[in-house]
Amino acid sequence: MILTTTPNIEGHKIVDYLGIVSGISSNIKTSFSFKTEKNLKLFSEAIDKAKEEAFQKLKVNAVQLQANAIVGISVDMETESSAYFFISVTGTAVKVE
């Protein structure tokens, strides 16, 4: 599976646009009430885990459409009350040759 933020893939021809796909991480409660180096590291690790989860869901959704690539990927992080966050990843599933 080829993943890119660009609208095309150098060296490949897009032969079919299959639709918009997304992957959203689960809501994650953060419990970091003050900023210490340890808490910032834990928070960073939690974000990385959520981002990976969102990308895996994105790829699963693209495979269901029989895509072999996703173009135009954008990543968005939302927070709510500074206690929850989730990450959404969106792109266009395509077939390339």
Automatic annotation (TrEMBL):
Organism: Neotamlana sedimentorum
PANTHER family from the UniProt entry: UPF0145 PROTEIN YBJQ
Name under which the protein is recorded: Uncharacterized protein
Pfam families listed in its UniProt record: YbjQ_1 (PF01906)
Family designation: Belongs to the UPF0145 family.
InterPro entries per record: UPF0145_dom_sf, UPF0145_YbjQ-like
Family matches, as Gene3D superfamilies: Hypothetical protein apc22750. Chain B
Signal peptide range: none
